[in-house]
Amino acid sequence: MNQTALLTLLLFLPLAGAFLLLFLRERERLARIIALAIGLVETLLCCGALLCQDNLSSTAAPKGFFLFEDIPWIETLGIRYTVGMDGISLLLVILTALVTVIAMLVSWRSITERVAMHYLLLLAMESGIMGVFLSLDLFLFYLFWELMLIPMFFLIGIWGHGRNTYSAIKFFLYTLVGSLLMLLAIIGIYLIHGSQSGSYSFGLAALTGTTFSPAAGLWLYTAFLLAFAVKFPIVPLHTWLPDAHTDAPTAGSVILAGLLLKTGAYGLIRFGYPLFPEAARTLTPLVITLAVAGIIYASWIAFAQKDMKRLVAYSSVGHMGFVALGIAVWTPVALSGALLQMVNHGLTTTALFALVGMLDERAHTRQIEDYGGLWSKIPLFSAFFLLFAMASAGLPGLNNFVGEFLILTGSFKFAPVGTILAFIGVILPLVYTVRLIQEVLFQEERRPLPMADINLRELSILVCLALGDIYIGVHPAPLLEILKMPVALLTGGAP
């Protein structure tokens, strides 16, 4: 298989699978099997991209990209089908494929109505997220950005529970406003670049280096920042997330936490800072302030949560605050830590939402006060719950510790006060995590809930994620080596 075919397959294989499921609406078991098979093939293709790292795709490829494809599309408007993969997108593409397969597996028994449509939306969303991580044309990026949001709206609205309609509409409105701001900024960049160069293009390589007046650059960057901050989410634009997580089905929460939050951070890294370096430096103190505020605020609010799913949702806001801090500082060490933390958060939070979903399937409650004594009743489940909770809290030897350590180390010289305050956000999660573990696993049983230990399907999910957490925690060097070149290229000349 040539490299061009590999990129195209990564983008459109899930979409083709989604189209196939349109014809299997009455054959639920077959729909599940086909969707899972496509997800596994997509994962193998993503892992196969690891073998291409040492190859040059073409002389036309931007520096640092080992897979690249550039084909004219709508030439009269300067729109091209331009996609590429470097070390950053490689890790996020692998994470996307893995988390999507896990979302399919956690839905295996819990989704009993409109099964084919559920898996169709998961595959369509996978294509959209893949496109976000691979697009090097702003128009193409925006197209995939919108594509990935529509399936999530229906996942929450159709298979959610509680106030699912409210949460789905709230998610849609927040993301719609952010998307419109980004669209306006993209059009502005396109027009300014065309007026300066006489050549209109949406290509990132062509647009990078475009000269903006201080005011124009600040306004355009602010639009990008707001659009991506909604998806992070950065406080105070985070309020849609706890509601969406609480009312979404388990697969929806897994995709939201594991993947969608990463698209905002990725957009800021790939497009925001490279296109508007001066404006980004101007707003760096603001972003650092909001990041640190989010770390502390989310951790504090997590103390008050009685619903396990909502607690994990607020912990996600805090962990993504560390990612925002690492990006804002824009040093090689801090940015490497932020990118690694994106992967770490994707693995750990996916596992926590999957575990909460497993408990909900058995006992039909997510309230912390309803549980207790699980360590003696379901020891294998409890061991995984303890492992992932400690990973989320940043226990040394597990993955989150490495990412947070790199972010704090890389940020201290540039923003010492913000780094010291962010360190509080390392301590607070440990406190509410220990409380969660104590009450759910070791407290005396409060209610005689029906409980069975994990089955083979659930074990395969948790073992896969546990191996990732432990491997990155013990030996992160291979992942940091993958990130080394693209991070150096991005931060060249940065403070």
How would the blueprint of this fold be written?
Layout: H1 3-21, H2 28-48, E1 67-74, E2 79-85, H3 87-106, H4 115-134, H5 138-159, H6 164-197, H7 204-207, H8 214-231, H9 240-247, H10 250-275, H11 277-303, H12 308-329, H13 332-363, H14 374-377, H15 379-392, H16 399-412, H17 416-442, H18 456-474, H19 477-491
Antiparallel strand pairs: 1-2
Helix pairs in contact: 1-2, 1-4, 2-3, 2-4, 3-4, 3-10, 3-13, 4-5, 5-6, 5-10, 6-8, 6-9, 8-10, 8-11, 9-12, 10-11, 10-12, 10-13, 11-12, 11-17, 12-13, 12-16, 12-17, 13-15, 13-16, 13-18, 13-19, 15-17, 15-18, 16-17, 16-18
Detailed description of the structure:
- This protein is mainly alpha-helical.
- It has two domains: 1-231, no CATH class; 276-495, no CATH class.
- Helix content is 74%, strand content 3%.
- A two-stranded antiparallel ribbon has the order 1-2.
Concise summary:
The chain is 74% helix and 3% strand.
Q: What is the overall shape?
A: globular
Helix content: over 70%
Query: Largest sheet, order of strands side by side?
Result: 1-2
**Spans where pLDDT lies below 50 across 5 or more residues:** none
Distance between the termini: 41 Å
Computed over alpha carbons, the radius of gyration is: 22 Å
* β-strand amount: under 5%
- Tally of strands: 2
The main sheet comes to: 2 strands, antiparallel
Q: Which structural class matches the secondary elements? A: mainly alpha
Number of domains: 2
Q: Please, what is the oligomeric state?
A: single chain
Helices and strands, in order, run as HHEEHHHHHHHHHHHHHHHHH
Mean pLDDT: 90
- Count up the helices: 19
